[in-house]
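Page header: ASSEMBLY MODEL / two components / 508 residues total.
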Amino acid sequence: MTLRLTNTLSRSKEVFKPLDDRRVSIYCCGVTVYDLCHLGHARSYIVWDVLRRYLCWPGQSDGAYVVKFVQNFTDIDDKILNRAAEQGLAMEQVSERNISAYFQDMDALNILRADAMPRATGCLDGIRDLIAELEHKGAAYSADGDVYFAVMKQAGYGKLSGRDLCEQQEGASGRTTTTEEGRKHHPFDFALWKGAKPGEPSFPSPWGPGRPGWHIECSAMVRQELGDTIDIHLGGADLIFPHHENEIAQSEAASGKPLARYWLHNGMVNVGGEKMSKSLGNFTTIRALLESGVSPMTLRLFVLQAHYRKPLDFTLEGLDAAATGWKGLSAALAVGQTYADSLGWGASAGSALGSAVGPADREWPEELRVSRDRFREAMDDDLNTAAALGELFELARPLRALANRLRIGDVASEAERAMEDRWTLLVELAGVLGLAAEREVVQAAAEGISDESQSGLSDVAIEALVEQRKAAKAARDFASADRLRNELKAQGIDLVDKPGGVTVWLRG
RNA sequence: GGCGGCAUGGCCAAGUGGUAAGGCAGAGGAUUGCAAAUCCUUUACCCCCAGUUCGAAUCUGGGUGCCGCCUCCA
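Prediction written out in full:
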């Protein structure tokens, strides 16, 4: 088997074969940095992060590719200007603030940083050159300081989105009222360069001061970073038209070559059946969600439990379910580090955790080899992360049970000590999905029984209270016993009653 | 109106011709004085109708419902 991806250009799954045998070039449409990112952005970048990790994974069907992943920041835009005006800031200040917030949020979600992250402001020469080239070739025309792309001149316009210029023209005929519309030869013509209005920030150009249109930024940045034809172009499904259609038109008019061989689009995040978006005001920012106590890995799991092309409804119930699911998976992932000593494991303990690329391929026991193959088959089938996660959960089940029993002081059986391979595989495959036990989780579990620096109560004090409760229980004074238990609970100490009257306490 | 997509158990969600992964919730059991936590076990004939087929959730046609794009948008 080999990787197959749904290409929006053909609307079908195609076998993935990069231009170069071992290298893959990817361009992902980034954000316009006028505000914080919300869960729609989180989903998009999580799924593309998984694509990237999978391509780089040595265990993948075609072997590890060398990926160059480019993602832009749109830092010239009307919305940024509006935001700057509202807040009395310069455009750059708004951009910088949101770019640093972007990194903070995406780093938290364990999304690998792109190899290059060009900004529109850093690519103005390339943008102006490209526009001039298009104008020279007759694909664009200038009008009163604006420059427009002439869609009728570009054969194949509409091939990505399935749009027909003639039909659409009729539907749009009532919309030519504004001055901008008046300058266009065709309603679908779009601005490559917008002349500046008085007082607006602007950049010089052969057509007068102004700023670039949104679509041309991406065309120029792709060309600058990756060349005329790239392997994969990524983005949200809402970008298919007009953004990606226009990008294709511009780039292909200039180069005469295909812009991208595979176009992949992720489905939207919905709220109550409607798309989450700034304009509808129904969005939750990544930051707000994480600050509310939701773990980054919970969000990651929530996103990856659905196929990337389908709409995903965001609900608190769904998130809770993912949180509980992650709790179990996380326990299994952490068991190897947390209990390495008592299990006699540890060969690969540190290295595999959180790394993008797992341990090199090797011989696995039959059962694990089957799991690994199933995982790979699922991922090969258009990144079926939901099915891949199913494999992860099955792999994790006995490890989770082991972790939970060790946590309350049980001793591992012979069979359980022999599960190191299973654990190593789980960590490797989870890593392909960018899932890793969080540091806090590992530490909390490791420090659970012996640590005495966190809580206000010392171990000795706690043990004394546990003894008191034991005595109360023996005297059948359950009211006192329960009161002691509640007091400890309030201090963050959980009691676990085990068979034989033994009580274990854990710092929650 | 045009283009595209979706419809699987209480919820989420895999599965594209041979008798339904996984997660959450629920139920039963173990443990417990009770509870919590934990462990084990367990719950579906796949929106409707017609058709193709030995056989369909899975293919075809029709219907119904929902969503996205057609303006900025991941």
